[in-house]
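ugh ok fine here u go
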Amino acid sequence: MIEVNNINVYYDKAQALTNLSMSVKEGQVVSVIGANGAGKTTIMKTIMGLVRPTNGSVKFIGNNISHLPTHKIVESGIIYVPEGRRIFSTLSVYDNLEMGGYSKTYSKKELKERIEEQFNFFPRLKDRMNQKGGSLSGGEQQMLAIARGLMSQPKLLMLDEPSLGLAPIIIEDIFKIIVDINKEKKIPIILVEQNAYMALEISNRAYVLESGVIVKEGSSVALRESSDIIKAYLGG
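structure:
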């Protein structure tokens, strides 16, 4: 689905990513774990064209998207749900979902059907469809952010720290939703997540990032059993 090939990314003179390569195959959930400041979000921003690599390439379904503007990348089928939800807090749940379908040329009937799909998948949002986004709980706002992303019928979904700031019981709900999206909707997912245990639990493959460099990669099962990973990220 997506191939990131040997990219270097700088913020002014500070190097954020160094010779980074990663890939996601169709049907996979791939997690990226690492400490704060490791460069996890920069990977997603680079894929979305929000920052540009100085060299290397990003290919999506075989096409080089490294120099496309962000709106064209969205139209190609990549959707990014950023850290901190970033919903429209003054708009209703329903209006937030309408905004999620903005990049598609839906008819009014199709738009209504897409919104109804999200309500079927996220019943709690249906109960709150007329509430302002800012009045929802943290978990509900995260559901809304994901549902808004799904409105564009993504071919690849990128989730940045979806568990951030949520209570443990809500985190379990969010991760179950991620698994359901992947299995039921057949959408491959890149998951950036500080909760390494949960990320490795639900993903097929994982990359470990330190200071902009991938220091370890492999199946999530193998990484869960790695003594280095257990010591560094799993509290072992």
